[in-house]
Write a structure and sequence with these properties.
Helices cover about 65% and strands about 0% of the residues. Strands 1-2 form a two-stranded antiparallel sheet.
Length: about 260
């Protein structure tokens, strides 16, 4: 391999590192474009569950597969520890998505594995760092935004499990919206009863959703609507998160002084 080829590869790799990890405006725009693509891909996979698998759907699936592959290959190439990268949950999800898109016959029932890409939303350190630096609103409401994101991901994954396990055997669940309706009514303990899960696997899944899911769902809802914590380090014990109206540190009892804007 000649020097020109080596130089071109080195420059290309350095450019990719700058795009994925740099602080320039171009790098930030690139990462936000990837974030927008992730959101589009998730919405696309949800919507296509309502329609037949037409030629146009397959066309868009292959386009998404190409983008995912290029993103995956670029991240793998510039990663200093490739073994650690390949064992990350988001990397495994990308590989599963690629296989399910390129070989749909093998993964026809595994739509929920595509939804796992939702775990990438706002999980990138650089995206979160950029939002903290540029958006006062995000800094003030970061905990609530993260809780809303976790809630959406949780509902999507549970809904996908219901859809995958029931769509072939349950006439009451014919698309993703039916599964979403059942999931939300179960998690909110409304339970209208017009849709029920069938078979032993369905009943077992319903038990898991009711016992584990409801508790987690209520916890996430509580996190979203409870008064936000503020970041103010206690000078005595170092505790950094306190209630917005706290006067004393809950850990050591020391008096703390939380800066406010003059309103609650």
């Amino acid at each position: 391999m000649d020097n020109e080829t080596l130089s071109f590869k080195a420059k290309t790799k350095q450019s990719l590192i700058s795009l994925y990890h740099g602080a320039s405006l171009r790098s930030k725009l690139f990462r936000r474009t990837l974030l927008a693509f992730d959101i589009f891909a998730i919405l696309f996979f949800v919507v296509i569950s309502l329609f037949e698998n037409t030629l146009y759907v397959r066309f868009f699936e292959y386009i998404i597969a190409v983008v995912i592959f290029l993103d995956f290959a670029a991240r793998l190439w510039i990663c200093p520890n490739r073994i650690a990268y390949l064992t990350q949950i988001t990397t495994v999800a990308d590989i599963i998505v690629l296989i399910s898109l390129l070989v749909p016959i093998l993964f026809e029932n595994f739509l929920f594995l595509r939804i796992i890409r939702a775990l990438r939303l706002l999980r990138s350190y650089h995206i979160v760092k950029d939002l903290r630096q540029q958006s006062p609103y995000f800094r003030q409401h970061e905990d609530v935004i993260q809780s809303v994101l976790n809630l959406c991901v949780f509902i999507f994954i549970v809904t996908a499990l219901v859809y995958v396990l029931q769509v072939r055997i349950n006439p009451q669940i014919s698309n993703y919206i039916d599964a979403l309706y059942f999931t939300v009514t179960t998690l909110t303990t409304t339970g209208f009863g017009d849709i029920t899960l069938q078979g032993s696997s369905g009943r077992l899944l319903a038990v898991i959703i009711m016992v584990v899911g409801v508790a987690l769902f209520l916890r996430l809802i509580q996190t979203i609507f409870q008064p936000p914590k503020v970041h103010a380090q206690c000078p005595d014990c170092g505790l950094k998160r306190h209630d917005f109206d706290a006067v004393h540190c809950k850990h050591c009892g020391n008096t703390i002084h939380i800066e406010t804007n003059g309103f609650g």
